[in-house]
Amino acid sequence: MTKQNSASPLPPPKERRRLRESRSLTLDQVAERIGVSRTTLHAWESGRGLPGGAEGEAYARLLAALALTPLTPPAGDRRRVPAPACALENLTPTQAFDALYVFCTPALVRQAYLLCGSRELAREAVERAFQLAWQRWPVVARDRDPAGWVRAVAYDCALSPWHRFRPRHRYPEPPPADPADRALLHALLELPPSYRRTLVLYDGVGLDLPETAAETEASTPAAANRLTHAREAVAARIPELADPAELHRRLLELASADRLRAAGPSLVRTVGERRNVFWTRTAIAFTVTIIGATTLTLRTAPTHYEPPIAPAQAVQGVPLRAAAGPLSHDEQTLRTKLRRSESSGPERVRPLAG
């Protein structure tokens, strides 16, 4: 193993990548400047390789120069200057959210398109991710990587299997017009979701392997295995993409082929707040319904045990109850005579002499 030059100490791998990205330099630009391949430079930035020799010394000098060079943007381009810490701290939550949205949305929509193959679904996934971020903004604002938090949620929304049951997304959108882009998109969509996500993060976004493993919630060996199988599957369909550098370039071209636009930050915040209010009211109504049903049950439910009434049964062997029959003619005559003599007859019946 080549030893590192002690006269030019190198920063940690993550710091190397941060210095390069802070100056808006790509891997290809730095690799061409120091005379190494893009794969070698990527290994140095991910910690899988140790710089050495003349190239390592040139790399160390370049990093030292980047660390000492102030961030002075070219004239007419002030967007590359990061905001001072004091200015970021003075931003209101709305301003901070809008700044994060404007900065991340264009790239996130293109990445989501590579994952789902639908322009409308990609925009919807990114907007939904930012709506969730606005609902949990205190947590997201304190996160060490707010952009990574939103990216993870957007990827989950784009790869959700429930979209196939929605009528809006049941039928696929028209494929890209370029046959090469159409073949690459078809190859990506044929990959399992976990392989597709790993490939986009590593070869599309440019994360290193540990960061890719952390974002996909997998171990580093598992992420490396997914990446290897994904590259092999894409290379089997498109042999010219066996080179990782060419695959990275083609992914960027495919993502940038169409102009994918999302809604404005104010609209996303408004829709998120309305959605939050709707679900809050729904939860309150559901809770009130449950409480009312419980109260009604307690009021109408029996408070003691009531034995059930036994079913009726026929009783045999009981004699019939005797009833008076119709009166005879003599009995009817006597009854009539008695009724007539009640008011005009003698007060006392006297016995007749014998």
UniProtKB/TrEMBL annotation:
Lineage of source species: Bacteria, Bacillati, Actinomycetota, Actinomycetes, Kitasatosporales
SMART domains in the cross-refs: HTH_XRE
Keywords: DNA-binding, Sigma factor, Transcription, Transcription regulation
InterPro entries: Cro/C1-type_HTH (IPR001387), Lambda_DNA-bd_dom_sf (IPR010982), RNA_pol_sigma-70-like (IPR039425), RNA_pol_sigma70_r4_t2 (IPR013249), RNA_pol_sigma_r2 (IPR013325), RNA_pol_sigma_r3/r4-like (IPR013324), WH-like_DNA-bd_sf (IPR036388)
Protein name: Helix-turn-helix domain-containing protein
Gene3D superfamilies: 1.10.1740.10, lambda repressor-like DNA-binding domains (1.10.260.40), Winged helix-like DNA-binding domain superfamily/Winged helix DNA-binding domain (1.10.10.10)
Gene Ontology biological process terms, A to Z: DNA-templated transcription initiation
Signal peptide per UniProt: none
Species of origin: Streptomyces broussonetiae
